[in-house]
C-alpha cells in the first residue's frame, strides 16, 4: 500500500489487479523514478523506455475502470511526464481509434500501437483555440475525391515530435462538422516543431504542428467521428484519467514531505514532531483521501455504464485543484530544499501546473458541471 492511501482504497482491487499494480509500481520505481530528474532537466524523452512500457502489457487491454485509474495514479506517482506520454498514446490516440474508428481501422492500427511499435499523438488544441476548441476549431478538412485535404495548425501536441500516427481533428468545410483523421507523423505537408522553454512536463515532447495541404485518404478518416460530440466521448474517458494522475502526483508529494519531516531536524528534533508540520501533513493526506474517494466512485460509475460528462469534469477540476494545494504545501514543508530537483518535489510542483490546465481548465470543467446541475449553459 502507498503511504498516502490512508483509507486503503487499493484494497478494493482484486488480488490479480493488485498484482498488476505492483508489477507496474516496481517497473516505475526501477526504470522511471531514478532517471526522471535527469531527463526533466534536459527536456529530453527517454526513448529507451518505450519498448519496456510495451513489456508491461497495459495498452489495449480491457480491464476494470478502477484498475485503469489506479495504473494512471501509479504513473503520476512516479512522474507526471511519463504519465502524460502514456495517457496521450494509450488514452487519447488509441482511445480515438477505439471509440471513433471502424472495426477495420481498429484492426489496422491498434495492434501495433498496443505493442508500442507505433506511437500515437492527439492533435486537437490549436494556437488560437483551447477552451473554445469545440466551436472555434480552425483547422479545416475538405474532401477531394477519395482523399481529404487538411490545412491549419495545432499546438501543445504531446508525443508529436516522434509519433508514428497523429489523430488530427479538423472542421469539414462542407458541413462545418468536426471530423477525425489518422495522419502519419511523416506525412508530406505536416511539420512538427518541438516547443521549447517549458517549465512543466519537460520530458513530454510537445510540438507545434502545421498542416499545409496534407492529403489523407478517406480510408484513414475515423469512420465514426462525425461531430465534436464524438470527440467529446474520447475526452470524457481521458479526463477521468487525468484526475487519477493528479491523485498520483499529490500522493508522491505527500510521501516526499512525510519522509522529509521524519528525517529533517530543527531545534534538536525531527520537524515531524512540530504541530504546524503535522497540520500541513494532515491537510495533504486529507486532500489525497477525498480525491481518491471521488476517483474510486467515478470508476464505479464508469463500470456501471452510467457516468456522464459532468462526473469526469468534476473529478478533473476538483482533483487537480487539490493537487495544486498539496504540492504547494509539500514544497513549503521542504522550504529551500523544495525548489531543487534533488528532493524531487520541485519537479512535481512544476508539473502540477500542466495537469491543472490540460484536458480542460478548472473553469471549463466547472461550466460543464454547472450546466448539468442548473440546466443552463454558461459558456458564452
- Give the integer mean of the pLDDT values: 96
Biggest beta-sheet profile: 7 strands, mixed
- Give the C-alpha Rg: 21 Å
Proportion in β-strands: 5-15%
Q: Which H/E pattern describes the elements?
A: HHHHHEHEEEEEEHEEHHHH
**Which regions contain 5 or more consecutive residues with pLDDT less than 50?**
none
Structural class by helix and strand composition: alpha+beta
Textual characterization of the structure:
- The strands form two sheets. Strands 1, 2, 3, 4, 5, 6 and 7 form a seven-stranded mixed β-sheet that branches. The chain has a two-stranded antiparallel ribbon with strand order 8-9.
- It is globular and about 80 Å long.
- It has eleven helices and nine strands.
- It is 53% helix and 14% strand.
- The protein is of the alpha+beta class and 380 residues long.
- The N and C termini lie far apart (45 Å).
- The chain has three domains: 9-114, Acyl-CoA dehydrogenase/oxidase, N-terminal domain (Butyryl-Coa Dehydrogenase, subunit A, domain 1), CATH 1.10.540; 120-226, Butyryl-CoA Dehydrogenase, subunit A, domain 2, CATH 2.40.110.10; 229-374, Butyryl-CoA Dehydrogenase, subunit A, domain 3 (Up-down Bundle).
- Helix 7 (228-263) runs antiparallel to helix 8.
